[in-house]
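Changelog note: in this version the structure field was regenerated for every chain. One regenerated record is shown below for reference.
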Amino acid sequence: MSETTQESELQNGFQPQLESESKVDSQTESEPETKPVEELKPEPVVTDADPKPEEDKESSIQSNETSKPASTDQIARTELRKDEGNRTFTMRELLSELKSDEDDAGSPYSQASTQQQSYQNNAAMELINSVTSADEEGRSRQRILVYAARRYATALERNPEDFDALYNWALVLQESADNVSPDSTSPSKDALLEEACKKYDEATRLCPTLHDAFYNWAIAISDRAKMRGRTKEAEELWEQATKNYEKAVQLNWNTPQALNNWGLALQELSAIVPAREKQKIVRTAISKFRAAIQLQFDFHRAIYNLGTVLYGLAEDTLRTGGSTNPKEVSPNELYSQSAIYIAAAHALKPTYSVYSSALRLVRSMLPLPHLKDGYLTAPPVGNTIAPHSDWKRTEFFLNHEALQQVIRVEQKQVFRSLSGRTADVANIDKRAIRVDIPDIVSVSACADLTLPPGAGLCIDTTHGPVFLVADSWEYLDGWLDAIRLVYTIYARGKTDVLAGIITG
C-alpha cells in the first residue's frame, strides 16, 4: 500500500499514523503495508480553524492514511456478465473473450446516446493511454490496464447502462492514477481520479445498491482531497467522501474497512472545519473506529487509529481547560485510553514499526504495571443479586492475565509481641472479584433493572456471568474495549507481547 504522511496533526507534536484500507473489488480486500516511521518536527500553533501542534512540544507520532488500488487481477475479477449472475472472470478470460465480444450484435440504443458514450470513452482512453510509469513493472501493468479499458469502452458503446463496465472502468482509472510517475503533469493523478469519480457516479446512478462502488468512490475522493491540503475545496471533498462511506455502510453494514476509512475521513475533516465544529466530528470519528473494532476485534488498523484520535481529543480538551461535566472522560483518562489502543495494536502487529514508534511515546501514559485501572461498582463476591445498597464502588485493574478487584482494608491490631508491644498487620480480605482472561466467553453492555443505576457491564465466563457497573456509558466503552482487546490478544497467541509492554 502506498503511504503518505497525513496533514492532520495532534497537539503536542503527536501525529496519528492513520491506517486505512485499500480499494476493494466486489470479492476481495487487499492488505496494505506500512512504511517505516519518519521523524516529524512539531508545528507552531495557528488559528482555531486550522489547529496544529504547539511549538514547544517534543513528541511526535507519524501518520499514514493512504489507499492502494486493487491489483490488476482484482480489477478484472470484478466484472460481472449480465447473463451469468455473480460469476467472476480472471484477466485471462476477459482478454481472451475480447475479440468475440467485439463481434456481437449491434447495440439497441440510439445513435445519439452511442455517440455521446463514444465521446466520453475517448476522453477517458486518452488519459489512460498517456500514463507513463517510472519502472518496467508499472509499464507492464499499465499495458494490461489499457487493454482492459478498451473492453469496458466496447461494452459501454453497446450498452451505455452497463453499470458493471462503468464500475470496473473506474477501478482501472483508479489503478492507473497510482501508476502515474511522480513528475508527470499530463495526465495528472488528479485528472485520472476525477474521471474515475465520474464513472463511479454514473455506475451508482444506474445501480444504487452497488456498495463497493460507493466505497471505492470515497477512496478516490479522499485521494483527491489529500492533494489539496487544508483548503475549502479539500473540506468539500472530505465531506463528499464521508457521505459515500456512509452510503457504503448503509448498503453493507458488515464492512469494518469502510467504517475505519469513514473515521479517517472524519478525522481529516475535523482538522479543516472551524474549532466550534471540530469536537462533534472527532467524536463521530471515534464512534466509527469503535464500530469497526466491534465487527472485527483484531482489526489493528482501526485499533491504532482510535488511539490516535483519542490522543488528539485529549490534547484539545486539555488546551480548552477540560470539561465541567464530571461524567465526561478527563484528559488524563483520554491519554490513558489512547495508550491502551496503541499498545493493543502493537501487541497484535509487533512487526509494524509505526506502532512501535508510537508506543514508545505513549507507554508512560499507561497505569503500569497494568493496562487499565479505574473504578467499577461491584456486588459482594458470589452474590450478584445482592440489594443495591450492598454494591460498592471499588477499584479494578486489568492486565494481560485478569480483571482484578482491589480491596483495601484498614490495619488492625491483631497480636502482642513477646516484648509486650503491639504490632499492626493488614487484615487483607482475599475474597475479591477476579476474572481470568482465558475464562471469558463474551463481554457486553448490559441494561438490567436488577443492577444499580449506571452503565451495566456483563462479562460472561466459563464459571458464570459477572455483573459490574461503570460510572457512565462513556467510561463503559473504555472498559468494554480494553477487556475485549486483551482477550483478543490472548486468543491470537500474543499475550507475551502485551505482558512485555506493561511489565517492561
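Spot check on this record: The beta strands are 372-378, 392-398, 402-406, 411-416, 422-426, 434-436, 440-446, 455-461, 464-470. The mean pLDDT is 78.
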